[in-house]
Specification:
By secondary structure, the chain is mostly helical. It contains ten helices and six strands; from the N terminus they run αααββαααββαβαααβ. The protein has one domain.
Length: 227
C-alpha cells in the first residue's frame, strides 16, 4: 500500500493541527522508508515473483524489523517520544505514534499471510486483498480520497504554493503508484529497493506544502501554522 498510508497522514492533520504534514508523511510511511535501507544492507529480503498476486509481484520473505506488529509498535513509540521531546506537544506525539502503527494495520488487509507478529515469529498474517485489482484500487484511492477530504476541510491555502503545490504532490503520488502498480515488474529486489528510496522525497515536500497552508482551529480562533 502507498496511497492509503498517505491518506491517513492527510486525515490525521484534523486530529493534530499543529503537526506538519511532512512529519505525518514520515510517520505514515516510516516502515516503507526504512524497509529499502534494511534490504540493501541485508537485514531484510524479498523476491520478485511476477504473477504471485494480481496487484503485487513481491514475495515478502523476511522483514521483521520494519513490518512486524511489535516493530510497528516500537517504531511508533520511538517516533512519538522524539516528537514530544522536540515539540513538547503531547497530543501531537500520540497522533504521530498512532500514524506510525497505522501502517501495519493498513497493510493487514492487502498483504498475503506474510506479516509477522514479532521478529522471529512463526505466525504470519494478512488477508490477501492484493489478489484482487478491484479491492486494492478501491482501498488505495478510497483512503487517499477520504484523507484529502479531511485535510482540505481542516486547512486552507495561504498562497498559490499552498493550493497548487498540494495538488502537485498528490499527482506525483498517484503517478508513482500507478507506475509501480501497472508498470513492468522490477528487474531485481535491489533495483526496487533503490527506487523505493524515492519515497523519502515526499517528506520534505510535505513540510513545504504545509508551510503554505494554515490549519483552521475554530475552537481557538485564527488559523495557525504547523510546526
Amino acid at each position: 500500500m502507498i496511497l492509503g498510508h498517505f491518506g491517513v497522514a492527510f486525515g490525521a492533520k484534523r486530529l493534530a493541527p499543529r503537526v506538519s504534514l511532512g512529519t505525518l508523511f514520515l510517520a505514515c510511511q516510516l516502515a516503507d522508508l526504512l524497509w529499502p535501507i534494511f534490504v540493501l544492507v541485508g537485514l531484510e529480503r524479498f523476491n520478485v515473483v511476477p504473477g504471485i498476486r494480481e496487484a503485487s509481484p513481491l514475495e515478502l520473505v523476511h522483514y521483521p524489523f520494519t513490518h512486524s506488529l511489535l516493530a510497528a509498535l516500537g517504531w511508533g513509540a520511538l517516533a512519538g517520544a522524539i516528537y514530544w521531546l522536540v515539540r513538547r506537544n503531547r497530543a501531537g506525539a500520540w497522533v504521530v505514534g498512532a500514524v506510525v502503527v497505522s501502517h501495519w494495520v493498513l497493510d493487514l488487509p492487502l498483504h498475503g499471510p506474510d506479516l509477522p507478529l514479532w521478529p522471529g515469529s512463526d505466525v504470519r498474517i494478512g488477508i490477501g486483498l492484493w489478489n484482487s485489482w478491484a479491492a486494492t484500487l478501491v482501498i488505495e484511492f478510497g483512503l487517499l480520497g477520504l484523507g484529502l477530504y479531511l485535510y482540505l476541510g481542516w486547512t486552507r491555502a495561504m498562497d498559490r504554493i499552498g493550493r497548487w503545490g498540494l495538488w502537485g504532490v498528490v499527482m506525483a503520488l498517484v503517478a508513482m503508484y500507478l507506475a509501480a502498480t501497472f508498470g513492468p515488474p522490477p528487474a531485481s529486489p535491489e533495483a526496487l529497493a533503490w527506487s523505493a528510496l524515492l519515497l523519502w522525497v515526499f517528506v520534505p515536500l510535505g513540510y513545504w506544502v504545509d508551510r503554505h497552508r494554515a490549519a483552521v482551529e475554530p475552537w481557538v480562533g485564527p488559523p495557525t501554522i504547523a510546526d
